[in-house]
Amino acid sequence: MADAPPPLSDDARTRVEAAAFRRLLSHLNETRPDVQNIDLMILAGFCRNCLGDWYRDAAAAEGVPMDKDTARAAVYGMPFAQWKAMHQKDATPKQLAAFEAAQKKHGG
């Protein structure tokens, strides 16, 4: 059994979490822009838009009001409309059916 990692200070933990979040965004937006948000929702129950909502919620918790478009731009690395035009495809009937099934399964 592996030893537990050494505890991180709050500051170090924040830096590590921020780096992991930035790497996730890079992976989703630069390495895998072909992965559609609907597929993320079907498989994981969240998508890039959810990350934008969580980002906005975290900003609000810090006393920084942020609108949806600003939060999404922070996640997508560009305005959402621009990313959508470049990368988002229309959902297929198969994707829509899988999404509906996933929503029912998870109580969404």
From TrEMBL:
Domain of life: Bacteria
SMc04008-like domain mapped to chain residues: 35-100
SUPFAM superfamilies: SMc04008-like
Pfam families membership: DUF1244
Name of the protein: DUF1244 domain-containing protein
